[in-house]
Amino acid sequence: MSRKLLLLRHAEAVPAPMGDFSSAADHARPLTAAGLAAAQRCGLWLRQQGLSPDYVVCSPAVRTRQTLEGLLPFLHAPLSAPLFCPDIYEAPPHALLAQIQKAPPQARTVLLIGHNPGISALARQLDTQAAVLDQGFATGSLAVFKMWGSTANTPQPNWQSCDTLSLTLDTFSRP
Q1: Per the confidence metrics, is the pTM higher than 0.70?
Q2: Is 168 helix (H, G, I), strand (E, B) or coil?
């Protein structure tokens, strides 16, 4: 059974209050009604594809948490408690990859729910040949990567040895 990485940009959120550019205001932004519906569509799409993460890393921002909440009713398998990781809020690609590498070895499907520009940049680094990623990573976009190997010469690819040569884009969707 192959390992899969799911990169999900949070669904559409309301703007921060006028003139408040603080980190606290940005963290507190909830999803719009359209964003809540998009999160549920994403969950339905995951179910239809037979994708159910067993490990989740999620930004602690309200909009990413609500995106995860929208997915949960549609997932087949019970997952371990999500890791709400402040390190992925506004993180560059290498920091996101470092969090993925911390996934437990038994995890078969890892879901990372975060923000742009980090999610989009990481997706591009993971598969530089995937022209579909040139369209951009709109809110609610989901990239599914398959792990096929690594440069660490491990007999069985695992998350700890995951790198930009380990994953190829399988599917890109905007449910």
Answers
A1: yes
A2: strand
Residues shown for the chain: 175
Crossing angle (nearest 10°) for helices 33-48 and 62-71: 40
Q: What angle do CA 141, 27, 25 make, to 5 degrees?
A: 125
Q: What is the pLDDT of residues 11-27, one digit of tens each?
A: 999 999 898 889 999 99
Token duo for residue 96: 């996101």
Calculate the alpha carbon distances from 82 to 66, 69, 114, 135 in Å: 13, 11, 13, 29
- SS3 assignment, position 125: helix
55, 109 Cβ separation under 8 angstroms: yes
Question: Do residues 161 and 154 make contact, with C-beta atoms less than 8 angstroms apart?
Answer: yes
